[in-house]
Amino acid sequence: MADEPNITNLVEAWAGSSPENLGKMALALQKARSKLGGGTPVEHARFLKKATIAYDDLHSFIKGDLVTWKEGLRDRLHPEPGWPAIVLDVFIDPVVDPVQDSQSSSYRREFDMLCGVVIDGAMYTFHFESRRLKKYEDDWDDEVL
Predict the structure, then answer these.
(1) CATH number at residue 100
(2) Domain, as residue range, for 98
(3) Could you tell me which residues are beta bridge partners of residue 85?
(4) pTM for this model (two decimals)
(5) Is the pLDDT of residue 125 over 50?
């Protein structure tokens, strides 16, 4: 069984690499960092502009609508990207998250929908901000339901 990577192994691997391989490793790390939310300030700025446009693009939902995350606005584990949730209720008066810590991303967040998601074969309900969601669209047949 191979040893698990540790900082010493990584340093030794880098130290023994050719400049070409170091360049390839650096590029691979940069790509991985970008996928994990790293990237450059310019990439962050572009992402923020695009996410703000999506956040401000409001949709009207009714009970029974299937919804999914807008790109870049997922802030929970469920539903997974590209998977649907079903609208169970739309609130006239949003539920304000009671989190007291102003450093929390949930501070004073206004949840205006209750949705059901499937987790391990059961439907669970969660509150959502509708502005983070869009209608779910797929090539499936409504009549199957």
Answers:
(1) 2.30.30
(2) 59-137
(3) 67
(4) 0.69
(5) yes
